[in-house]
């Protein structure tokens, strides 16, 4: 139990640390950050349940006002922006990513990369697009078009997630809790 709590807290801190990498905000108000890669890593390394809980812990700390989002944003106001759908989708993305890694019995590199693309990109975009459409008062097709600019960077983060997870699996196999 203590080990699970430590891993959950560590990965919530990892998401926060990835927010220190400078963000780039697009013209319509949604930032491009490295934090979504932390969400993907929560799933590939911790697994579905622990990964989702780590992201929920991170979001709870943000909601309480800690400036943990990229650019030092925090508080309930962070959930009233065009990126709200992405934030809501983060724990679900971590869960889906982890669920795939837990169940797909194949070499970790293609599994983790595919899981990060399916869970950490596709699943996250479903929520992100809906949130952008609502917050920007756009149609879903219009919000989808706005979101297309994120996809190349998120695919790079998904590939990096697969590589990091595979490297960790090689050097410290017991640390990949999604496969335990």
Automatic annotation (TrEMBL):
Its membrane topology: Multi-pass membrane protein
GO CC annotation terms, alphabetical: plasma membrane
UniProt keywords, alphabetically: Cell membrane, Membrane, Transmembrane, Transmembrane helix, Transport
Keyword Transcription: no
Entry-linked InterPro entries: BioY (IPR003784)
Keyword Transport included in the entry's annotation: yes
Compartments, record wording: Cell membrane
Segments traversing the membrane: 51-69, 76-101, 113-136
Gene3D superfamilies found in the cross-reference section: 1.10.1760.20
Molecular function in Gene Ontology: biotin transmembrane transporter activity
Family affiliation: Belongs to the BioY family.
This protein's name: Biotin transporter
Species annotation: Maritimibacter alkaliphilus HTCC2654
